[in-house]
């Protein structure tokens, strides 16, 4: 094979992948452009398309593929419309964050449905026999199916362009993305068009899923694998721009394919580097205009309302009680033999710290960090590397983790805090993905295996406790090194919470609260809003790094999965679930989430589905989180009176005691 | 006497905790041109927005053609036959002139014959010339004409114009003025909000003067124009020769 | 004659082809009450934004207290003594009245905090800040309401708090952006009385549509038209100016 044909083949391969991306990103971009919805579930709709086709084509045999190619996308479109009607629609007018949260919940639901119906393993999805052969064109042979993908993709992209530019539907969609209020003023029910648009975008994703499914195979992780590249494309091309989605899709497909062949090291890195550069230099993307992407939002982030029913004394007492229980748990565990509970609590404590760190930026500085696992993961890597190469001391390792993460946070913040809202979210996501892909590439990070088998020492300069040699008999109990680990973790997490609370009550935190209430006003009484946000981001990065470092030190390993975007999503879920902007709310959220996950997963296979449904209901009905539940209940017309009466009694009692 | 086409009673309305309208009363008779004059910030635009439904009134009623439309959403109000030419025109910048008019034709009442897009565009000579240009590329005057065309194509029973002459050169103001008279001659009922007192008085049959969210004076346009006291007191202008 | 407290030289702002502010030379004397009026689209808001630092001029300079502040962002201008109020009440509505004022008082002093103080000391234990907060609360008639959550205040008291927040930054000069927009005649009077009561010892620049109001309260009036200064003078001088009448009410033949 000559060099020219080799290159041509790579280019064609790139176009094949690119076409799939185009179909995927076009829907994503149109949905964002028209409704300002960042649809994380788009990847799952893509997977759903593939599975529907798989289910349809299998029994039908021969012509089944073609039937599936028509029917499956329609089904996905109907599901998309249902999703819009039942969930997304309820959140219009709120901050776009809530759509991210909602659709993240939908990811869990759809993904779990897929695995429960079709199983966890990848399955072959044969391409039709007629296309399953090479064909010689322009002097070299190439897979006919790949040509078919390029043709199908081109036809659909062209069709979409015609739909948008030449039809009444498209005209209303375009007008709506420019000025939806004016469309309403003309007497046009734009809501109906939103539903149709969502369905249409979902159907395009469905087609993309089918053609890629037959190209590779169908697997429950396929949605997860494409959603981030799809976001990169949409960002590169310009949020909301169809032309941008087409150009970006082909471009990313080509770059990825060519990089894989010619510069394997850069594969997986280069697109994220590009994404970050584009976001920093021209946040509206290569084809984006300020129109559409720049539309302002009336909705604000909704914070947990911790006050109200529970007085601060009550909350403080509950806090002491919680810490007290946590201190006693190892004894209870020894007594009852449920030692597993300690392991679960360690998990909870670490996630609680991670959620606490996110709350400082999300709840107080109003910054939606979509890539917060960057700090968690880097903290874990930094501490394991320190333990291996520098010192077995956990203290040293954690200090290094915090410093490294704070420094990275400073750098990321320096580049990105100027750009606001969605762009900031995308930049943080880009950085997290960059690091995620990078750790696979290096030997010193252990590649895809990560690093493991680390020995730790709780002390400095030889003075301290080595958990592997630690054993202490205490009455009936004999405690091993695990106990040191647990109490150390508890102390660090409680200490971090107290520190965070201190920060929030100090002038620094009071300014963050002012910024949260009104950024403009804070600036016009003389505060450098950007500098404050950046500082909050640095503190937050440091604390997230501490959480990651603790996990790595406790478990003695680190792996690339620490940097996976799912973690970023989960920690946002915990933060909002608990009630952001309260510090303790997100920690409670982490506890509930991790415990629910643990308990549910031991009883039912579809635990993700349950958590997803619960979370979606929370986002829609209790956006202020768990900590606002007492208030929500108190405000409820029927339940409320009971609670209110009881509270009154308690308050009177308190007064009498005083 | 027949009932007015549009009747606003004791309308109280505003944004958040700010009450902009503090009990507005006004009537628009079929076939007439009624103008709402007043300085900036007295609630003229809010009155139009409250009639349309993009601001929900706190209290009071809006009756249109015998139907209570107080609580209707903007799209439902528009489907009753009220078209708005909004402040700052708000043509769709990425849509062509033709598309801007086409989308207007989709809106409005469902149960009537509407003029064709071509008919409407031909009525505006500077639009006919640029019918493939995008809204963003038109001059201010052309955008204003386009916004009027977009409203007219739905064959509305009531046309509401919000500051149609704002920011336009004097010669263009004259054109807009002529267009308003022309439309009224064709039988279109018009509710006009205007800051330019001269334009407002010239075009109108009947005038309401708004101040601090209330109607402080009303009367036939020629009476208001003749009353130096009214002009001086409420508007601080004099039309004396 | 003393040096003006605020001065603009050839101040120009273009948005694409549109010249919103066209070569404006404005001089405001220390201690005066100046108003900037003009019809819609005259460039008042753009001028205001150029003065506060929300926008950067295409050309020209802004000098405040003898110092060129053209390149400074809003928060630094505030620290130099150039305060502003908002047209729509813009307070920290979820915080208490005292905290609203305290934040503003803290802004004036937080540069001097040591890092340990800035990050670890309780914000409400800085004595100077607290004393200043209390003075401002007393002066603006809000001392009885300190512990109320700002959002629960009546509309008039919110305006009062808005002014108190400005006062707490201890400005030499305050830019007032249509402080009475959307108010009834009564509320307008109350607000202007309040401004007079609380801010009378500062230099004031009022951006306003309402001519009556402007005539009543100003020492001097600057009339903007199509981005440029059309006339300037005492209320009497300006109201007699035929050019002003024509421009402000458009098309009226005198």
Summary tags:
heterotrimer, A: 658 residues, mainly alpha, ABC transporter involved in vitamin B12 uptake, BtuC, 3 domains, two-stranded antiparallel ribbon, 8 strands, disordered C terminus, B: 241 residues, alpha/beta, six-stranded mixed sheet, four-stranded antiparallel sheet, 10 helices, 26% strand, globular
Q: Would you kindly provide a written description of the structure presented here, covering whatever features stand out?
A:
Chain A: This is ABC transporter permease. Chain A: Keywords: Cell membrane, Membrane, Plasmid, Transmembrane, Transmembrane helix. Chain A: It is found in: Cell membrane. Chain A: It is a multi-pass membrane protein. The complex is a heterotrimer of chains A (658), B (241) and C (254). Chain A has helices at residues 3-35, 42-60, 64-86, 97-118, 144-166, 168-178, 180-185, 190-215, 222-237, 242-262, 270-281, 290-293, 312-336, 340-364, 373-389, 394-416, 421-439, 481-505, 507-517, 519-524, 529-555, 565-578, 584-603, 607-621, 629-635, 637-657, and strands at 134-137, 140-143, 451-452, 458-460, 463-465, 471-474, 477-480, 557-558. Helices cover 72% and strands 4% of the residues of chain A. Chain A is mainly α and 658 residues long. Chain A has 3 domains: 3-293, ABC transporter involved in vitamin B12 uptake, BtuC, CATH 1.10.3470; 341-565, no CATH class; 628-658, no CATH class. Chain A is globular, with a radius of gyration of 26 Å. In chain A, helix 1 (3-35) packs antiparallel against helix 8 (190-215), helix 2 (42-60) packs across helix 8 and helix 14 crosses helix 23. Chain B is an alpha/beta fold and 241 residues long. Chain B is built from 10 helices and 10 strands. Chain B has helices at residues 44-52, 74-80, 97-106, 117-123, 125-129, 140-152, 170-185, 197-203, 221-226, 228-235; strands at 6-15, 18-28, 33-37, 59-64, 67-68, 82-85, 158-162, 189-194, 206-211, 214-220. The termini of chain B are far apart. With 254 residues, chain C is of the alpha/beta class. Chain C has 10 helices and 10 strands. In chain C, the strands form 2 sheets. Chain C has a 6-stranded mixed β-sheet, sandwiched between helices. Chains A and C meet through helix 18, helix 19 and helix 20 of A and helix 2, helix 3, helix 4 and helix 6 of C.
